[in-house]
Structures are given as C-alpha cells and as structure tokens.
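Bench log, entry 3. Co-assembly request; chain sequences pasted below exactly as received.
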Amino acid sequence: MLIGELAKKTGCDVETIRYYERERLLSAPQRSASGYRHYNAEQLGELNFILHCRSLGMSLADIRNLAAFKADHEHDCEDINLLIDQQIAKVHQQAEALRLLEQQLLALRDKCHDSHAAADCGILQTLVEAAEGEPCVCHTPFGQDNHGHSHDHDHAAKKNGRTQKGRP
Amino acid sequence: MLIGELAKKTGCDVETIRYYERERLLSAPQRSASGYRHYNAEQLGELNFILHCRSLGMSLADIRNLAAFKADHEHDCEDINLLIDQQIAKVHQQAEALRLLEQQLLALRDKCHDSHAAADCGILQTLVEAAEGEPCVCHTPFGQDNHGHSHDHDHAAKKNGRTQKGRP
DNA sequence: CTTGACCCTGTAGCGACTACAGGGTGTGCA
DNA sequence: TGCACACCCTGTAGTCGCTACAGGGTCAAG
Ligand SMILES: [Zn+2]
Ligand SMILES: [Zn+2]
Ligand SMILES: [Zn+2]
Ligand SMILES: [Zn+2]
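Structure output for the full assembly:
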C-alpha cells in the first residue's frame, strides 16, 4: 500500500502521514527501490489509532505515551487512566472557558442592535471605555456594583483563549 | 512611561508588547535618544483595548480590523456586528465540540475502573479495536446498532481539536 | 567604577499541521 | 519510443500568538 492509498483509506492527509513518521508516532514503513513508502495492515492500524486519539483531542505527546503503554504489556494501566483523566480535565476546563467567553460576547453584542455609524456603536464604545478603565458588560457579569473606577478584569490571567498556564 | 512600566500597569508581558508593535496593533511609541520606547496615556489605552479584545478570544487580525473601524468614525457598524457575531459563532462551535469531546472521553474512561496490566485495560482495548475498525464507545454515542464492521467515525472531518474548517 | 536592573534587536522555538519548490518514478497511450 | 500525467520523494517555510533566549547597550545607585 502506497502512502496515497493509506491516506484515502484513513482520511488522513499524505503530508500529515509523513509528519507523523517524522515525529516517530508512526513506525517507518518499508521502502521500494525508488524510495516509495509501502505500508501494511499493521501500520494502517497504527495510523487509525493515532487518528482516533487525535479525534479525542489528545496531543501527539500523549498519543506517543499511550502507544508506549500499549507496547509494554506489563505496564500498570494506572498511567493510562491518569492520562485520560487529565485529558478530560483539560477539555472540561477549555469548554467552561469557552462557555464563559460566549456569555461575555453575547453581553457585548447586546450593546448594539441597529445599524449606525461606528462612532455611536455601543459595542465599540464599551470596548473603548473598558480600555480606559470603566467597567464593561462583558467582564462585569451582571450583579457587581463597581460603577466607577478601580475594577480589573483578568486580562493578564488568560493571555490567549486556549492555554491558561499562569495561575490555576 | 517605559515599556516595563506599561507592562506592569497592564499585566502584559514586555515581549508581548513589542510583539504587538511589530504586528502593527500598537502604534510605534516615541523613542529616547538611546532608543528606549516611551509610552503615553493614549498608547496605554490602545494596549488595554487589545488585551480586552484578546480576553474575549478575538484574533489579532480581528482586533486590527476593529481598531480600523474605531478610527474610521463614518464607517457603518454593521461590520462590527458581523465580526462579533462570527466570533460568537466560532466560540459556540468550539464549546460544543469540546462538550462532545468530554462525553466521548468519559465514555472511554468508563471502560476501566480498577488498576491492572495495560494488556487487559478496557481503555486501551477499546482504542486498539477501534483502530481495527470495530465500533467504540467514544464514537458510537449509545443507541447505534452498528455492532460489527463498517462504521466510520469522522477522523478526517475534524483533524485537530480546535479548528474544523472542512465542512461547516 | 562596578553592580544590577532595565532596555534594545534579532532569531528560534512551541504544536500540529499545511503548502510549496524542485525534483524523481511509474503507468498508459499514440 | 516519446510523452503526459499522476503519484512519490526531500526539504524548507509558513500559520498563530506568543515565549525565550543571545548578545549587546543604558542608566541610576552605592
Ligand atoms: Zn453598533
Ligand atoms: Zn469586558
Ligand atoms: Zn485499565
Ligand atoms: Zn472512538
């Protein structure tokens, strides 16, 4: 089986297959005289394993570990459980963060209904005022009476949407 | 105000501030004779605006657009609304995807309760069998009777956890 | 006059791909 | 046999939003 055929069978891009091999996730296949990769059923399984784990949101590092556990039959499965549990925790946290984000965005969106000049747009006004230190609908959920100065939403805490590694 | 002071005031890393300047999100500050950046209140506002938008999960490209709308007072705010609506949609989709992921992971986790050898681990067995084409708890939600061969979960469709750009 | 805290530029790295450029191979058809 | 065309190869660079140096310069205090 050549790489293109494997790609078709698995739905994985050819370049991604080569990438997985470079990253030592996929074992190096046999080569024809001209250097073409030839895959067998075992490697088809390997790739499907990787893709399955990826579809569960696992990192390539996690998948590498999982594959190592799979190879080491004696290994206690405690580590597997830990890995999955951590994955669940990670996914859960991210989902919660996004849920909050959606609420914040909806609150902001509610500041503008009709079409009008940008200068008068409630959304833009909210953003500009927030940058000047005023409270904002998005970061002051609803019941907080910090109606003036001195409020700090956590810009620093979550620098980018997906990884918050600063403070737990 | 030197860059370190601005960093402290905003909670933004010094290197990130320089990065925003390189990316033309932050206007270039005045320089002292020795090349030190000196910031004023206006640029403090600019940075806070950026950080506020980032905390709402917006991309730097979106923020650049938003800043352009802010500068162009005549501009109709329709585009702002569109931008926010798209952001809401994106966040919503990602949140839903993560919710599903969590369910899938929990179903998989349920395949192992006690500690034992990896060879007998229900989690690992599930993953290996799925790679061979069997149905799996994680990708066959619960009521589907595809109990044998010929099932395809959508490995190809969502290549990585965060961006599914293939089919909407 | 030295120490140490700050500042500068430029470059490389992260993760998980994706997209070429620039070439080689293999098959079918006239 | 010649040629088109689909496929394969390697290697490098780009994506995004930072982060982390290396290797230097500046400035105020002691
Ligand atoms: Zn508006
Ligand atoms: Zn806000
Ligand atoms: Zn187990
Ligand atoms: Zn599955």
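The beta strands of chain B are 30-31, 37-38. The first strand of chain B starts at residue 30 and ends at 31.
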